[in-house]
Inverse folding.
């Protein structure tokens, strides 16, 4: 049966992926680089969130970005326009980033460091990326209001494996039949301690809380690892 | 190298998938059932499109639906509420539908037929489903306005393998910085003959053209196969 063979190989790939991810995380922790992995459907606003977040963060912190896409360098170009070191990973057909891709890209990007924050924008896909640890310290899933409040229940792993849920395009909340309570309640059924933010890159709403959270998480991670 | 092994197994799975898909398509053609496979990101409005399309189609045609999701029966419940025979396929973790899943589900659903149209709503994912022929006669990719006009360039295979592109939630076009021309031009670079429709399930705009297209495609398919 083809399915059974697929699962067996996948387990090996996942083990190899996790091994390399742990090594990356240890290296980043030692260097004081706090790494955030952004997950979502295509078009939920990952790049737009970075465009709104990074200029505020850059005032006090050194920031780098790794962009993941099947094709095109469009997202990297948008980040580079902000004057931020960035590298685009184009996966060809692969539907997610894996830690060996990150290691390769990081090898190139780190010459432009050191970095206090590294953001990884995963391939737009609410399914596959959730199975791949990239060595990040913080995984954040974005859910945009136009997508609908039923996504946590329908795509559980992305929400179960994320420490924070960002409800994006929150300026559209009155236009859509989207219940924040339902979305958050379904996400909390999967992960009771998930942090939740409602943000609009368009109006700026919620961005201060999101930034505070990033700084708190970075500070907590430093005090645990004891570096710097 | 894990990647190479993954590709080899994937090729075998794809061959098995295509073999079964061809058999399904032949059976459906012989029975006069025209099959449509709907692909898109999560939350692009596949179920909402079906809710707007099927009541119009049901006046003159017998319609069935297969719903694909990782988890939950929510979409099938929405379709069943219209009085349409429907079966939910929950894939567990699998990020796409495969033809063996369709064959199993069809074995159950066909007792409620015969059907003139069968709609398959794939798992919400703009990457993986595009690699799996399900035996459909027509593949349709949905791109919702809030997702952004850059998606054809960034997720090319979904657009290259689809005969029709539906730009959904078109009532939001003034609210977003979305260029229909850019999206369609990028899609036509990938597939010059792709048909294009702009629809809004909310306002009803564009639905008549989309229905006419479905009927034309079904009629063309019948005259080729010579059945019925």
């Amino acid at each position: 049966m083809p399915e059974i063979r697929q699962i067996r190989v996948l387990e090996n790939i996942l083990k190899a992926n996790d091994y390399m991810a742990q090594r990356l995380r240890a290296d980043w922790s030692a260097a004081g680089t706090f790494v955030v992995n952004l997950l979502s459907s295509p078009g939920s606003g990952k790049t737009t969130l970075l465009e709104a977040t990074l200029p505020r963060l850059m005032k006090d912190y050194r920031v780098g970005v790794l962009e993941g896409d099947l094709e095109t360098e469009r997202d990297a170009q948008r980040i580079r326009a902000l004057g931020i070191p960035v590298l685009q990973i184009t996966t060809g057909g692969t539907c997610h980033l894996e830690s060996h891709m990150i290691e390769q890209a990081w090898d190139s990007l780190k010459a432009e460091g050191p970095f206090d924050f590294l953001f990884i924008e995963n391939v737009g896909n609410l399914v596959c990326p959730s199975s791949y640890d990239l060595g990040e310290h913080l995984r954040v899933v974005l859910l945009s209001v136009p997508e609908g409040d039923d996504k946590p229940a329908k795509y559980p792993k992305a929400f179960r494996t994320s420490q924070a849920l960002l409800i994006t395009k929150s300026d559209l909340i009155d236009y859509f039949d989207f219940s924040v309570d339902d979305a958050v309640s379904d996400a909390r059924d999967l992960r009771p301690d998930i942090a939740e933010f409602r943000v609009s890159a368009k109006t700026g709403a919620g961005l201060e809380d999101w930034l505070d959270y990033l700084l708190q998480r970075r500070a907590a991670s430093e005090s645990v690892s004891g570096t710097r």
Notes: The first strand of chain A starts at residue 34 and ends at 39.
